[in-house]
Write a structure and sequence with these properties.
Blueprint: E1 6-10, H1 17-27, E2 32-33, E3 36-38, E4 52-54, H2 57-65, E5 69-75, E6 79-84, H3 85-93, E7 98-102, H4 104-113, E8 118-123, H5 127-137, H6 142-156, E9 164-167, H7 171-182
Parallel strand pairs: 1-7, 1-8, 2-7, 3-4, 8-9
Antiparallel strand pairs: 3-6, 5-6
Helix pairs in contact: 1-7
Length: 187
Amino acid sequence: MAVSRLTVLAGPTAVGKGTVSADVRARYPQVWLSVSATTRPPRPGEVDGVHYYFVDGAAFDAMAARGELLEWAVVHGRNRYGTPRGPVLEQLAAGRPALLEIDLAGARQVRAAMPDARFVFLAPPSWEELERRLVGRGTEDAEERARRLATARIELAAESEFDHVIVNDEVHRATDELIEVMGLTRR
């Protein structure tokens, strides 16, 4: 089977990357969604190995030192996130469409390592809506929200680095656009 093309979905905090990715998977189960490793603790309802691989700092450092991460970064000045390399390469070699849902720094690293990947920026309809979504999530305290919003301003300024920009004004519409960009058809 031919090698598939990797799609990288990035965007600021609370823009809905996880929601859009989940919608893609619900409608197109053939799409493989990468599971990142992180040093942050799980949020309520998150399951290790499903939502993230929750690891301590030492385990994360060991993965990075062994070259096991396609990309990794310190996000919001606090926790580390990274994409395990092996599973991505295995899925692509098997011809399965693969989707990475990562931050800006990670997308830049993937671009350096895999320039033929498809890079998609998920943007909010407005700054005010992004703030509303972050506050409405209720998973971060005021200090963490401020840190994430400061990072979001930087991330939004990098929109032009991406091959495609999708505004997440409505989840199913944004998913439809991402599916079109990925060239997916129902199986």
